[in-house]
Amino acid sequence: MQIKSGKDFWAGLMFLAVGLGFMGVALKNYNMGTAVRMGPAYFPVMLGGLQAFLGAIVLFRSFAAGDSPGLKVFPFRPWLIVASLIVGYGTYLVKTQSTLLFDIGLGISYILFQGAFGGPALYVVLAAVVVFALILKPLGLLISAAVLTVVARAGGADFRWADQPKTITFGLLMYGLFALMMAAMSDAIGKGKAGAVSLVVIVAVSIFLGRKLKGIEIGALFAILGVFSVVIFGHGLGLPFNACPEIMDEACRKIGLGS
User: Which of 58, 73, 88 is the last residue of a domain?
Assistant: First the structure.
């Protein structure tokens, strides 16, 4: 079989390897549980399995169609792989001494490894994911979703920091609308139904205004992502993710934003 798309081949191989890796580590070290009573391994296994499945599809497609034959489609920097292994080994050594250092070191090692196979934008996107993981607990889903979206978008060539005050303001206004709707409806119809109604409203308003007002598209995106995460993971699946920063968690629970 001839590789007809080098980009799809490497992308599919990367997604497949990372997905299977996450599944293997989670299954080996944590309890799976069930769909009704999920264990700590359930979410990474499901996510890793979905990523591996998508990777397999992309990998198969690289043999079927494409316009970039061959494997050399981007610069390869082997020294970054060496640096990744060094940082990863150092992270393993401090595993029992500091959980925070372990998380940061693991994230840096992952970014270095992936960065060996692409351009500078890849560093920014992966760094956004690592930052999201580190700030999720202290800052909550809403703020973390905003940071993830803005920082990941910063990897684009046309990104301008000067446009971000407008887009961040819009996203925070959508969060405020979401909080008001949850506070008004939670006691009457329950958190689940209130969350579903609020999600539909936020998605509709964000998409409509995002098309009408230039420069707030990213704000619309992180508003939808943040509200979706709170409604689905917090209220729908009951996962222990706080919606708001830890210092505001009690106040958020009173207006229906807590899980």
Answer: 73
